[in-house]
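DATA CLASS: polypeptide
GOAL: derive structure tokens

***
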Amino acid sequence: MSSSHFRPVFSLVVALAIAAVGRSAEPDAGKLEFFEKKIRPLLVGHCNACHSADTKPAGGLRVDDRNGLLTGGNAGAAVVPGKPADSLLLKRVAKEAKRRMPTEGEHLSDEQIADLTTWIKDGAVWPAVKLPASFGKQKEKYEELRKDHWAWQPLQEPKAPAVKDAAWAKDDVDRFLLAKLEAQKLAPVADADKVTLIRRVTFDLTGLPPTPADVDAFVKDDSKDAFAKVVDRLLASPQFGERWGRHWLDVARYGESTGPSRNIPYPHAWKYRDYVIDSVNADVPYDRFIREQVAGDLLPSTNDEEANRQKIATGFLALGVKDVNQRFKVRFVMDNVDEQIDAVTRSVLGLTVSCARCHDHKFDPVPQADVNGLVAATDKVHFDPPERDVVHGPVGELAEVEVRVEVANHPGQDVAVERGRAPPAGRCTRPQRPAGLFASRRRAGVRRRGGTGPPSAAARRSPPSG
């Protein structure tokens, strides 16, 4: 991978929602009065007990919020503004309904059903959300805080300190180390012999010891580029990706099961593991590496192999701890979204934004609005397994093939669409934002460019390893 400096950016998707509120026309005063006198009491008295934020919404439906009615629950939209005949809410409260709602307590009277019908026919008006006068000023506050926060400062090339033993240092890294040694009145140790040197670099790059044949060949090679040849050989070995891909897998919380309460295995997690290893060995650019994992399923591809590889990359989002015992569906989904955002921001932004799930961050310049924006870009990630007939195996394969043939014959018009996670994924690797955990670790570790030149004095002269 490229060893450039990467500093990603936050996505402020929540601004779209604010703009939408601003565009909404103020509802008619008479219709609002009708809602407050007729509809709200009806919903509170007959529906809220089972379909509100105060309980686990039955069927996934909430009626205490207009968006909840429009989005609907498991059966679909409960209200279609202007179309009473298409609104499931009316069908479920009607006298002829097979399982009439509400299932407990008094059913709606003819007059109440007529009021609901009128309300939906008139557009299902709902009082607009009143934003406080201070709304938006927090953004200005956080922009000021970011100017002083160390994580948002632009990277600078530090000036190497002057040292007394200038001949010892081969590069600026050596000069920084030597300056610290001289400040403590310490002297560097003698140069490591060739056997120690090849052991160090082989362990560093592959995590394995060198073979006796490798050691013997390096000891006998007196050419100036002998060490560079060893490094290039190790960088080209499959073990390099296994060793250094492990660093990303740790950051990506790689595991092959769901974790805590019920430890259900992820049977195909190894595909994501191999994707990471192959990407490291192929020296995939960092920005592409991140983009594929955050939104690979939304990115364009030139062939099926590339499309499949990019979909496997999104295993980064699908893995992680999942509370599969959580019976509250909305809570389960939002906990997963929170876990995904935490994984992305920790690894790519180097920030712990999960504190801002419920309120503005108390220490870092991260407002809750930013996290809500990321939620809007992430909450459409689904973990549903493909439908299967337990007895006969996968179902619907023939129909799927027929659909694909039909689509191939009538491909339609190409439309450029920026959806969900794709725009934030691209912004995550811009150089204007904080470097993430993985990028920082890689900068502190071995870089590929180190294979083209001689080892630094620090590498040659530090104490031999075991």
About this structure: Residues 1-24, 386-418, 446-455, 459-466 have pLDDT under 50 and may be disordered.
